[in-house]
């Protein structure tokens, strides 16, 4: 088994779609939408999911062995598209090092490690690119001793090629660089982070604090 293809859409209705005994490196192509799915990657180490439909909606991701996760929206049949991706540190994603999301329309990514037991401290690279609007929210764990979330983070990129870019990072303690570009407006909010540099380039208005 070297690849998996689905000829139509996947509607999870909030249930879990799980892989078991799969290859460690696996590309998956869905010739349709992915809606309301909780994804369990099982023993996969490097997962690439190519979605050719309009919607990619993942309510959560878990996988103890997962180090690299990539989502591509090819849009073979439609113009634009919408990606919603939620990753919660309460799930077992403690090995995840690289997250890449490429959208043909709008992309919304939320990464939540805001509780004391959440472990996303292997995550080093986050890249979000959208043809239209791109949104990234990252929430780490804040304590009286300071921020304690995402300690290995090195690089964060948010690119909205033809639309607005939004980046909100709170209690993200890794020493990371932030690069945000927008074809329209860009908004960046950094709260208690270890950012070493932030570059914001917008064709219209740019706001950073």
Helix content: under 10%
Q: Give the topology string: H per helix, E per strand.
A: EEEEEEEEEEEEEEEEEEEEE
Global morphology: globular
Distance linking N and C termini: 48 Å
Strand content: over 45%
Rg, Cα atoms, Å: 17 Å
Overall mean pLDDT: 91
Given helix and strand content, the structural type is mainly beta
Q: DSSP helix count?
A: 0
Structure description:
With 209 residues, the chain is mainly β. The chain has no helices and 21 strands. The strands form three sheets. Strands 2, 3, 5, 7, 9, 11, 13, 17, 19 and 21 form a ten-stranded parallel β-sheet that branches. A nine-stranded parallel β-sheet has the order 1-4-6-8-10-12-16-18-20, with no helix packed on it. The N and C termini lie far apart (48 Å).
SSE layout:
Layout: E1 4-6, E2 10-11, E3 16-18, E4 25-30, E5 34-40, E6 46-51, E7 55-62, E8 68-73, E9 82-88, E10 98-103, E11 106-112, E12 125-130, E13 134-139, E14 142-143, E15 146-147, E16 155-160, E17 165-170, E18 177-182, E19 186-191, E20 197-202, E21 206-208
Parallel strand pairs: 1-4, 2-5, 3-5, 4-6, 5-7, 6-8, 7-9, 8-10, 9-11, 10-12, 11-13, 12-16, 13-17, 16-18, 17-19, 18-20, 19-21
Antiparallel strand pairs: 14-15
Summarize it.
The protein is mainly beta. It contains no helices and 21 strands.
């Amino acid at each position: 088994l070297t690849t998996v293809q689905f000829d139509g859409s996947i509607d999870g209705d909030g249930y879990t779609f799980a892989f078991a005994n799969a290859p460690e490196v696996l590309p998956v192509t869905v010739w349709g939408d992915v809606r309301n799915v909780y994804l369990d990657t099982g023993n996969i180490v490097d997962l690439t999911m190519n979605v050719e439909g309009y919607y990619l909606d993942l309510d959560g991701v878990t996988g103890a062995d997962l180090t690299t996760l990539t989502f591509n929206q090819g849009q073979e049949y439609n113009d634009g598209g919408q990606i919603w991706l939620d990753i919660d540190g309460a799930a077992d994603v403690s090995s995840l090092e690289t997250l890449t999301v490429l959208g043909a329309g709008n992309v919304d990514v939320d990464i939540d490690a805001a509780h004391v037991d959440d472990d996303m401290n292997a995550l080093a690279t986050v890249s979000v690119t959208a043809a239209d609007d791109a949104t990234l929210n990252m929430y780490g764990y804040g304590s009286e001793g300071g921020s304690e979330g995402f300690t290995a983070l090195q690089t964060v990129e948010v690119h909205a090629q033809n639309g607005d870019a939004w980046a909100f990072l709170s209690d993200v303690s890794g020493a990371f660089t932030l690069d945000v570009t927008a074809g329209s407006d860009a908004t960046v909010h950094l709260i208690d982070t270890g950012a070493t540099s932030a570059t914001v380039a917008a064709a219209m208005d740019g706001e950073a604090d």
